[in-house]
Amino acid sequence: MFPSFNLDKIYQFLIIALAFLLPLTVFGANLVIVVICTLWLISGEYKSKFSQIFKNKLMLASIIFFCIHFVGLLWTEDLSWGLHIVHKMWYFIGLWPILYTLVRNNYIKHYIFAFLIAMFFSVICSYLIWFELIDSLESSMIQQLEAKFGIIINQFSVTPFMSSVSYNPILAFAIYLVLYEIIFNKNNSRLKTYCYSFFSIIMIINIFITNGRAGQIGFFVMIVLLVFQFFKNQNIKAFIVTLIIIPTIFFSSYQIIDNFKIRVNSAIDNVYSFSENKKNTSVGIRLSYLLNSLQIIKQNAIIGVGTGDFPTEYRKINQINTPSLPNSTNPHSMFTLVLVQLGLIGFFSMLSIFYYQIKFSYNSSSTLIRNAGTALPVLFFVVMFSDSYLLGHFTSLMFIFFSSFLYKDFENS
In this predicted model, what pLDDT tens digit does every residue of 4-40 receive, in sequence order? Predict the structure, then answer.
């Protein structure tokens, strides 16, 4: 259909471009996605494409997860919000299977490098914001809210292209990939090792001057995982090293970086306030979301309330239990949201995605796939307790993008 073009090379160029644009711009990434999907749809060879997709259990798990959201529209009362949720989930049935058929083993290092270059640029911009040389996107949004509603929002953010909620988990995974290169890639030149080492240091500092606590927790989990992966089959040694490294990084950051100290103290104070029945804090509101949502889940355990009915059902329970707290369209936990919307059926469907990712990684002969392929689901499993990261543009796109090549059996495709 495209005899004068090397279509595969065009695809690889576009995928590398997507890797670079992924953490930088919604519009740019979406534009590349539209081009990739359009070319895929009009380029033929559908039998081969669909054969690849339906032979892979992870792809089937992803498609089923989306389809359950779609079927969940049948018993939802708020169809418009349900369609909104389904729209946010389209990556699982559209983009992921398409990318899966297009990625190539010999380009994986280019995908990762393009992503890391973009993250390096993001980190540099973050420091420019920190030194008040430029404004952050989030700061501009906060200023607009303050001007519009006449309120003061006490939040200082140094994230350049997205909110700190999305930025820090992505940065945590980027730090993992850089440290992986330093520790496991023995073919790096001395110059490359020095560059990666410098990059890792400024990234680690950066994750503590930003406000995303979930990403900071995710970072510590990534460090623990790296230590255990390095000391393979030496769990006692890995455990001892972890007991040294994690407290050292935590307390050093706590003493040196004021913003991290403030966020830690704030979280502790919020938990203490909640124990005294003072719920109108950042942590208190999230815990209230969880407790109120659990009551909804108990009443609709198997199939949930429907894809679009979380806002409606939460409003009802919130008025009874915590009327002084705000209503919400999101419980700030992907697990809680899926359980409310789709019950245990949706919950286990989502878990099946993580199961097949871990299983594929465990059985892989590639060190990169075995280690990074484990790190991705572990990171998301941890951070999704604090927010719906498979619905947000940046984090869901990162999850889908890396999953498209970390769990592909290139030998049999």
Answer: 568 999 999 999 999 999 999 999 999 999 999 999 9
Query: Residue 1 falls within a domain, yes or no?
Result: no
- Whether 99 and 36 have beta carbons less than 8 Å apart is answered as yes
Cα separation, 329 vs 323, in Å, equals 15
What is the number of domains present in the chain? 1
Q: Which of 268, 311, 270, 306 is nearest to 292 (CA)?
A: 311
For residue 157, give both structure tokens. 């953010």
> Can you give the length of the chain in residues?
413
224, 175 Cβ separation under 8 angstroms: no
Q: Which residues contact residue 385 at a Cβ distance below 8 angstroms, ignoring those fewer than 6 apart?
A: 214, 333, 335
Which parts of the chain sit beneath pLDDT 70?
A: 1-5, 136-157, 276, 411-413
Which pLDDT tens digit goes with each residue over 45-56?
899 999 999 999
Q: Which residue range forms the structural domain that includes residue 39? A: 7-406
